[in-house]
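Risk register update: the risk of archive-format incompatibility is retired. Evidence:
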Amino acid sequence: MRLSLSRISVIVISLALIPVVAPIHAQNLPATPHTPDLLGIYPGMPMNLARAMLQKHSSQVNVQTNAQPEIGFSMNIPDPRNRDQINVFLTRAPNAPAVWMIQRSQNFDPGSPMSQSALLTALRQKYGKETLTWDRGGGGLYLYWIFDQSGHLLTSADQGLQGCSGNSFVNYIRTGPPQSPNTIEQSCFRSFFAVTAMLNRRDAQLLEAYTVELVNMPYAVRVATVTMNANNAAADQAKRNQLNKANQKKPVF
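Archived output:
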């Protein structure tokens, strides 16, 4: 069949008007936000990626699998003048192993201290201006950078969140959150996504030690609930299996 020149022109123009859609893999898709992080490790980060990221912290010391299941792996740099300890806490099955909390502590030899100013400058360069500050006296100073669940730093927050700590949830990650959380726990479980710096001060200028903790408590509650439900279901099934076997042991009279 022969087409006239005018018909061919119409077809060409029509094809030119069809929008060209780029393949998905060629598009610059927005990355999932991973803010904040501690040493490049963030809550929700898969275990293998987090372990590789931690190894970048030292070319001399290897990442170690921790004997405590609640602490997935760690790195201990045993410099007597500046002991550096990093612990990475992982979710439990049936969740895929992922980070829910990271802690870093440094302890300083009296002859090689770190100044409070140096630490706070580094933290503020990394995270911004702290949301809350709590001077507990006796050399203890706590600073909180609190984020919403999108990872955006909050300029203000409920003072009650100063009672939150990832350490308080370590056992719950295995057993599930308490059935009747108290008022502070309710607030922590609902909204405590934070970096906490705990300073042990020698005096107004120098530090003896510090610990920085990054935890996403709402995320930890969700994954701990999955673990709890799976454990409860397994326990219920074990009881049913035991009862079925017990029912089969009928005596003969």
